[in-house]
Amino acid sequence: MGLKYIALNLCVGVLLALFAHWYDGSGAVPPERSMRDGVDIGMYAPGAPKPVRAAFVVLVRNSELPGMKQAMRQIEDRFNNKFNYPYVFLNDVPFTDEFVAETTAMTRANVSFGVIPAEHWSYPAWINQTYARECRENMARQGVFYAQSESYRHMCRFNSGFFFRHPLLNDIEYYWRIEPDVEYSCDIDYDPFLYMSRRGIKYGYTLALHEYPETIPTLWATVKRLLALRPELLRHANGLAWLSRDGGDTYNGCHFWSNFEIGSLDFFRSEEYLAYFNYLDHAGGFFYERWGDAPVHSIAAALLLKKEEVHWFEDIGYYHNPWTNCPLSPESRLRCHCDPSKSAIHHPWASCTQAWPALPPSSNSTSPA
Q1: Predicted TM-score (pTM) of this structure
Q2: 324-333 burial code (b ≥16 CB/10 A, e <16)
Q3: Are strands 87-91 and 54-59 parallel, antiparallel or unpaired?
């Protein structure tokens, strides 16, 4: 009995000593437990100002609520329950009370809901809507995906040139795009916003695919006309090599799959990007063809940004039907549940993914060939 009593006292004494070392009575968390990547973890408390002015940006319909909740559950479990970055939900119509209540209940982070201005989700004055309808019908006969959809075209135009102008994003520097029904298969134990901000990275992706050429038959010709007028928009020749196999004569279709993207809003708000978008917008291809925001974003990033300003988040496990990015390193197996053998990088259609990091380092002198 005496030995048990002594052993119990020793255990209690050790626990008290450890507690005294950890807690000084002030209520403060000791320094070794209060920092994450050099940032006070108090900044990641719900509602606290974050080390980077950043947010999840979600364009979603009321009818997509179940898929949106699934996506939120994924990103909360894998990342945001530790970091508490806010969400900004956007819709071309007001959100229902049900949508607001159920998405707000999914997170401790701040949540905002906004309606897209009508002028950002409608036909601009220079578009011939009769001709646009004829073009949609012609694409439908060719079997093009979303050939007849007007809302899809409004979405692509909005994501290409207007989402970053919404008032709810006025004070935001970085955004992380999330869509309904996506899956995150790996724990994310660091802050990608902070990682990008500290390194001057302007755009991040998980997958890069080849675009369907029948959706963008004149996009590259339009870009080349713009570059002839404003050659300074081709800042970095490395990016052109990623977009074209023949020195810029034709477009190979490489684009960052934009349903996942983490980016700098300052990049999209720049004079160069706005001039680029406005030129494309007036060409009419968002409505006369089916230009997607993915090739529009990607061409701009490749032309305007250095190789080092675009980052492949190879370590983020991500799935959007039908493609997945699954990290291949042995270490990732300890924090991921995806099957690396099914990662899209094994498929030729996703060869653009690794082609960007394989580019040579950027040089200071870049000019059109």
Answers
A1: 0.89
A2: bbbbeeeebe
A3: parallel
